[in-house]
Amino acid sequence: MNRTHCPKPIGSDGRLSLTQQSLNYHGAGMDTEIRQLEEALRIAMLTSDVAALDGLIADALIFVGPSGEVLGKQDDLALHRSGRQKLSVAEWQSVEIALHDQTAVALTTADLAGTFDGAAFSGRFRYCRFWGKTAGVWQVLGGSVVALPAAMETIA
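^ that's the sequence the OP posted. Answer follows.
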């Protein structure tokens, strides 16, 4: 799979990338919309904008954190509201989108830094988020995040 900032029509193997295949089938509009939502989510996470996060995250969210813990929407919002998690850096290095009717999967590689429970952290992480559109509104239904080992950071 190509992991790029922007869709590339042809991959290094000469075939259409996953992103381009999705664009051909669903059109650029939905892909662009999910990319804009991923950016809105990045900004809301970076600024701990609980109101924005509340709108972007489905009430029945199921999210697996980097230690394997399962979080719901209220857990996620509480991390930001309380200041237990504060990001000082949230830079998306790549976003890959796979579209499926009224759902989308976003695979995002990110450089993050900040504090969690007062302890500093930084590194490269990979999010897999499932977006769904209900009543005309896109929200994150579920997902996971993992810290990438140092060896993978250079090839992501």
